Amino acid sequence: MAAITMRGVTKRYPDGTEAVKAVDLDIADGEFVILVGPSGCGKSTLLRMIVGLEDISDGEMRIGDELVNDRAPKDRDLAMVFQNYALYPHLSVRENIAFPLRIAKVPDAEITKRVEEAAKVLELTENLDRKPANLSGGQRQRVAMGRAIVRDPKAFLFDEPLSNLDAKLRVQMRTEIARIQRKYGTTTVYVTHDQTEAMTLGDRVAVLRKGVVQQVDSPRNLYNDPANLFVAGFIGSPSMNLLPGVLRGSTLELPFGSVELPAARVPQGGGAERQVIAGIRPEHFEDASIVGDDDRGHGSTFRSRVEVIEWMGSELYAYLPYSVGGGSVGAKLDELAADLDLEQTSGDDSQIVARFDAASRVSEGGDAEVWVDVRRVHLFDPDTGETLTPRETAGSRDHAPGAVQD
Ligand SMILES: Nc1ncnc2c1ncn2[C@@H]1O[C@H](COP(=O)(O)OP(=O)(O)O)[C@@H](O)[C@H]1O
Ligand SMILES: [Mg+2]
Fold it and tell me: What predicted TM-score, i.e. pTM, was given to this entire model?
């Protein structure tokens, strides 16, 4: 096991594409770190540079204390698990798992011992003599992991290992991977484009956009204290609502009315009137008619038409239309929406997604009193995209300076 340290790690492909830009990342020994971001943001490239399958154009990659920039993959002592498992169809499960040990000329008795131990943890003991073709997708995935485990590598590296599995199995394997990582305590770097996977698996999550690390933090901190608009929009489902606003002192004017922000939410050095982008998560709205008196005082209430209702059983999503009115803030939101694959358009009309308690009786096409929790409103600078909101949780945001600018 070992720590992985990156300093200014950059990848320029021969055609000039800069896929990874000056990444600084410290992964502690035994830590489970996720690299997450939309397709094409450079996750696989970064992982392949750790493993040695891609040359490093600039910067330093260290595994433990050792600079590995010029080390061949086989000398880095890392185990990579691919999306397509890469199992040998003509070999039994036992021989597939044993494969890297045979290559390394480990004695037979030792191979048997290590393979059987791994099979036990992976619940593959009954299947050791079967061929991959006779296994389910989840079992094949576990064989691929078994092959990584028996090598007792310095780190496990996963590149979207679950994306070929159906939704139910994906959830099951997610728990499995977390369990196995905890049992072995092996340093793990895991790539996914799925923010739910990122949030549930990692000790820490690094969010990438266009090859640049935006924020590295615990799932909770990413959610509560996003460093910029991109992280705010990417983490959370349904996404945070991003609305154009004008801030005067502690008064925030939003498309649906003005709200008074509590002191803890007001940006430092406020003063003059300024344009902002306000971020409010769906769950920080509520049907005002079911908000208790205690909470009511912590928020603002406004009236809105309810265009669509999606009833989810345990909750419902109400779609509240509003008009944005273009301008530079609108353009910024459009650009962000394109990057995030969101449907939010800001050119003309848009909608807020609000999550209401299942007890709500609002009706589609009707009007509703909507409550918004002003303690949870985020503000962002419309030019840089950086947050303006004082941090909720202790500690400083760990992200590359200037990360938001393209
Ligand atoms: N061999 C290559 N040559 C040139 N560009 C590449 C190559 N491989 C990947 N890229 C580009 O680098 C960027 C990052 O790719 P990749 O690391 O695969 O992203 P992700 O895994 O996040 O989807 C993309 O723009 C992709 O098109
Ligand atoms: Mg990829």
Answer: 0.90
